[in-house]
Amino acid sequence: MHKRLRKFNTRDTYPEQNLDNDLCQAVVARGRTVFVRGQVGQDLDTSFNVGIGDPAAQADQAMRNVEQLLREAGAGLDHVCKVTIYLTDPRFREPVYRAIGRWLKGVHPVSTGIVVAGLARPEWLVEVDVIAVIPDDAVVGDDAVKPGDPVKPDA
Question: What CA–CA distance (Å, rounded) separates 37 from 130?
C-alpha cells in the first residue's frame, strides 16, 4: 500500500474551524495512476445539477462521482493520494471540507484548496479532482463496476 507521511487531522490544525479531515503531508505511491477529471455537483448519468446554491450538497455529489469513476477504473477511495478542491467563495470551505472529509475518512490524502473567481457554470460552487494510485499488489478486474451501478450512500 502507499506510504503516507506526517498524517494529521484538520480538527487539530484548524481548531477554530469545524473540520475533521484525515490528511497527510506527502504520499509515496507505486502502482497504476488514475487521474479523475474535476467533478462538480452534477449527476454523471443524467447531467442533472444537484444542490443549486448548496456547496455541501455539491461537494457530496462531486465525491459520489469521484467514487463511481474510481470504481469504474478498478480503484477505490482508499487509493486516493491527492485531492484538489476549488471553491468559488472562501466561506464555503467548512461545509465543503466536512462533506469531503466524510468520504475520505481514514484515507489521509494530500490536499490543496483553491479559491477561484468562478467555475465553468455559474451554478457550480465547488469542483473536486483527485489522483489515485492502484497499488501494484491490488487485484483489479472484478472490482471494476459499470456505469449506473450503486455507489456509497449518503453519509
Answer: 7
The Cα 150–Cα 146 span in angstroms is 9
Q: Measure the CA dihedral 101/26/77/59, to 10°.
A: 40
What CA–CA distance (Å, rounded) separates 152 from 114?
A: 26
Q: Could you tell me if residue 35 is inside a domain? A: yes
β-pair partners for 5: 26
Along the chain (155 residues), what's the average pLDDT of each consecutive run of 10 residues? 87 90 85 93 94 98 96 94 98 98 97 97 96 84 48 45
Q: What are phi and psi of 14, to 5 degrees?
A: -125, 70
Residues whose CB falls within 8 Å of the CB of residue 106, separated by 6 or more in sequence, listed in order:
22, 78
CB 96 within 8 A of CB 56: yes
Look at the chain and report how many structural domains it folds into.
1
For 32, other C-beta atoms within 10 Å of its C-beta total 16
Q: Which three cell numbers stand for residue 71?
A: 470504481
What domain range is 103 assigned to?
20-135
**Hey, which residues does 44 pair with through a beta bridge?**
none
CATH of the domain at 94: 3.30.1330.40
Q: What is the pTM of this model?
A: 0.82
